[in-house]
């Protein structure tokens, strides 16, 4: 039977308190905060981070297919799967599908996964709401990843699932729109409640389920109240409704239902039943039953691991700058050149996969790849060596106030890896008061810059904080 083998999630380090939006415009706002991508993050980098969390302890060469679901891809015309697959060290022969446009793309990808394959589903979104609008407050950034397959490793069987299509203009963004548009929320909520009720009630009956036999119901849809109303009409109690993460993360688009599912799995016990309903121009629905294998799954960061590791002091002006919603004075430097397509092609395996070389003669790792070993001077005695996932420490660092950075000063560090090897790189998700020699760091996939419409990705170091390792 098809089911979930593993899961992972990613929530950006930066959080914007909604009250700061209200203070800027002098108007009331909702409470809580929302997760915000840094200037060096996007849906691809977040998706890679969630997938790395999901693939802990998994042989990546066994992944047969990868589905990437997002409504905020970096390109309107260019795939993201090859970038993600290279960063994750997947087989070149992995089958890739990109699902977009609908907020149900993430759940639809889970439903579409083939039972006979190991399919990695990555859902990731960083949508931008227009300033002063409700979407600006509700949209949050985040990603979730789920590995689907069959066999003894399945931690949650997919008992049944399906879809009901239902056309509605509630949320939309045309090719020329900068921001998502909405019809009146009362209209959207009424249709949402009707479609969820009409889809889920017969689905539960078909599977001989009653509301009280479900441990958690995961409903992804409009607003903060309509999902509670839909759950109530279906007979669920408030303690059965999975936290939608609105107050801590926000509505994360295609990743919203999968992130709630990951959050539910983090607390699930064998025998628990989880019901998922994702609304957007219809409803996707799935029923899961947790197996004994969940107790054997290694610890992931997941949703809980990221929730309390945060910087909630970013200003609204920083958010606007990072989102390119306000014009600022250009750096007094020459414009950044567009990356060379041939140079990117030659170095994709090295730069995206963070793959260096390791000397066969003495075992010394080096990055970037070298022909001559720095230690024993052996020539052309190198094997590929991947640095992702290795523990590392800051050996020394500098604060660069002159570099053109959206968040000065730029922190540049010499990082030594525990298993050997050294790299000079940027440090992200860290402020100048935190950085110190000997700090434990890990590598994270980021967008270095965008120039000429081309996004250039590489790896940066970020601190490993105590709350993450608990």
End-to-end distance: 34 Å
Q: What is the class of the largest domain in the CATH system?
A: Alpha Beta
The number of distinct structural domains comes to: 2
Number of helices: 12
Strand content: 25-35%
* Corresponding CATH superfamily of the largest domain: Thiolase/Chalcone synthase
Radius of gyration: 23 Å
Query: What is the CATH topology of the largest domain?
Result: Peroxisomal Thiolase, Chain A, domain 1
Tell me the number of strands. Answer: 21
Task: Specify the helix fraction band.
Answer: 10-25%
- The neighbouring-strand order within the major sheet is 5-4-6-7-1-8-13-12-11
The CATH architecture term of the largest domain is: 3-Layer(aba) Sandwich
Low-confidence stretches: none
**Quick check: average pLDDT?**
94
Q: How can the largest sheet be summarized?
A: 9 strands, mixed
Which geometry do the CA atoms define?
Answer: globular
Kindly name the structural category: alpha+beta
């Amino acid at each position: 039977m098809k089911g979930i083998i593993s899961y992972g999630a990613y929530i950006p380090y930066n959080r914007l308190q909604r009250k700061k939006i209200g203070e800027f415009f002098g108007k009331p706002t909702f409470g809580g905060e929302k997760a915000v991508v840094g200037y060096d993050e996007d849906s691809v980098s977040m998706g890679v981070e969630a997938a790395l969390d999901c693939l802990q302890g998994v042989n990546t060469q066994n992944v047969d297919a990868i589905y990437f679901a997002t409504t905020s891809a970096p390109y309107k015309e260019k795939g993201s799967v090859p970038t993600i697959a290279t960063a994750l060290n997947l087989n070149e022969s992995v089958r890739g599908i990109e699902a977009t446009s609908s907020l149900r793309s993430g759940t639809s990808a889970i439903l579409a996964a083939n039972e006979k394959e190991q399919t990695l589903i990555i859902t990731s979104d960083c949508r931008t709401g227009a300033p002063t609008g409700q979407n600006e407050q509700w949209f949050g950034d985040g990603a979730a990843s789920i590995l689907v397959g069959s066999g003894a490793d399945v931690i949650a069987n997919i008992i049944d699932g399906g879809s009901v299509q239902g056309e509605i203009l509630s949320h939309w963004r045309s090719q020329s729109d900068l921001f998502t548009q909405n019809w009146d929320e009362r209209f959207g909520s009424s249709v949402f409640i009707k479609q969820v009720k009409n889809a889920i009630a017969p689905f539960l009956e078909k599977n001989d389920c009653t509301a009280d036999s479900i441990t958690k119901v995961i409903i992804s849809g409009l607003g903060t109240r309509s999902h509670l109303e839909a759950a109530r009409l279906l007979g669920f109690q408030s303690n059965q409704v999975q936290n939608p993460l609105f107050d801590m993360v926000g509505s994360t688009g295609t990743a919203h239902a999968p992130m709630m599912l990951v959050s539910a799995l983090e607390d699930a016990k064998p025998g628990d039943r989880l019901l998922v309903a994702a609304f957007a121009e219809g409803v996707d629905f799935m029923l899961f039953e947790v197996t004994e294998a969940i107790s054997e799954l290694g610890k992931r960061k997941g949703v809980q691991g990221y929730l309390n590791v945060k910087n909630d002091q970013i200003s609204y002006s920083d958010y606007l700058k990072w989102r390119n919603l306000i014009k600022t004075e250009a750096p007094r430097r020459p414009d950044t050149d567009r990356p060379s397509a041939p140079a990117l092609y030659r170095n994709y395996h090295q730069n995206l996969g963070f793959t260096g070389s390791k000397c066969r003669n003495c075992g010394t790792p080096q990055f970037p790849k070298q022909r001559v070993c720095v230690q024993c001077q052996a020539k052309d005695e190198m094997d590929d060596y991947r640095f992702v996932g290795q523990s590392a420490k800051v050996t020394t660092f500098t604060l660069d106030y002159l570099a053109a950075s959206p968040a000065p000063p730029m922190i540049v560090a010499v990082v030594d890896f525990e298993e050997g090897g050294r790299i000079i790189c940027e440090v992200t998700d860290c402020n100048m008061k935190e950085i110190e020699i000997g700090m434990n760091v890990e590598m994270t996939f980021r967008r270095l810059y965008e120039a000429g419409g081309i996004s250039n990705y590489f790896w940066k170091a970020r601190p490993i904080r105590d709350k993450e390792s608990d």
